Amino acid sequence: MNIGIVGLGLIGGSLGLDLRALGHQVLGVSRQERTCQVAIDRGVVDDASVNLTLLAAADVVFICTPIGQIASMVQQLIPHLSPNAILTDVGSVKTPVVEAVTPLWLNFVGGHPMAGREYSGIEAAVSGLFAGNPYVLTPIETTPPEAVKVVEQIVRSLTSNVYFCHPADHDQAVAWISHLPVMVSASLIHACGSETDPVVLELLQQLASSGFRDTSRVGGGNPELGVMMARYNREFLWRSLLNYRQSLDQLIELIDQENWKGLEQRLQETQAQRSQFHLKADD
Ligand code: NAP
């Protein structure tokens, strides 16, 4: 199959490596000449260009640009596409993308590979990034079933675990398990850093170890990604933050009232609840 990729960064580049290894002809388009050259040199693509005309021969195109550029990229791409081409994207939030792109190109299937690394750009692309990780597809009522089938087959060939859901359900779920943790972790770092006693502040910074490392990791990441989550998944993230604040208030109240029995009960509940999340053994 001829597969196009627009945006040769971490996700687009990693897709290219895997799809080429599976025997597809991969054509890449990116914004910078240098990125295209690195992609060719690294064997991420068979050919690459800054010019969208390269994708005229593509059967399927993955849009892998930052979320804010997905719809405008599709608009620019349409004049170059063959009429039966299937489009899909990899954006981490689905409702705004699906709502903006579906009216432009019916043969569009929203997608979100739930795999990543802390690095970005073509240099960060790696083989096997998607293997064993969830890949969510979000077709809606008007999405042609044939297009869904083709995208599903490609995604399954990456040995991803494929899930189907409505874009809004996806966005609500990722608000809880991906976007809320970033905000919670950021406020944890901020709260610890606001210690006013300089001796204690220095001491806590020196003593911080595995517990703080685990809970501060996502809040200490790329600020641009955090803003992107809040901006494009604003409503669901806002709602989950309010729920979280309520849960935190309950803990404050239990401690304020020295209700140790109540606190133990809550922690027993959360201990049991954690096992219901499908975390990998090393999570
Ligand atoms: P990235 O490493 O920064 O790659 C994005 C690439 O898009 C850049 O290398 C850039 O190419 C290209 N680009 C930017 N603007 C462009 C434009 N106007 N036209 C053409 N190319 C453009 O980012 P990423 O992490 O791969 O994220 C890409 C998408 O994947 C986003 O929509 C994100 O939501 C989604 N996603 C990310 C993760 C993650 O963990 N990072 C996980 C799942 C999904 P140049 O180098 O040529 O400028």
**Helix-strand makeup class:** alpha/beta
How much of the polypeptide forms β-strand, as a percent range? 5-15%
**Beta-strand segment tally:** 9
Low-confidence stretches: none
SSE sequence, one letter per element: EHEHEEHEHEEEHEHHHHHH
Level-1 CATH class name of the largest domain? Alpha Beta
Shape-level CATH architecture of the largest domain: 3-Layer(aba) Sandwich
Instruction: Name the shape in a single word.
Output: elongated
The CATH superfamily name of the largest domain is NAD(P)-binding Rossmann-like Domain
Instruction: Determine Rg (CA atoms, Å).
Output: 22 Å
Q: What's the main sheet like? A: 6 strands, parallel
Strand order of the largest sheet: 3-2-1-4-5-6
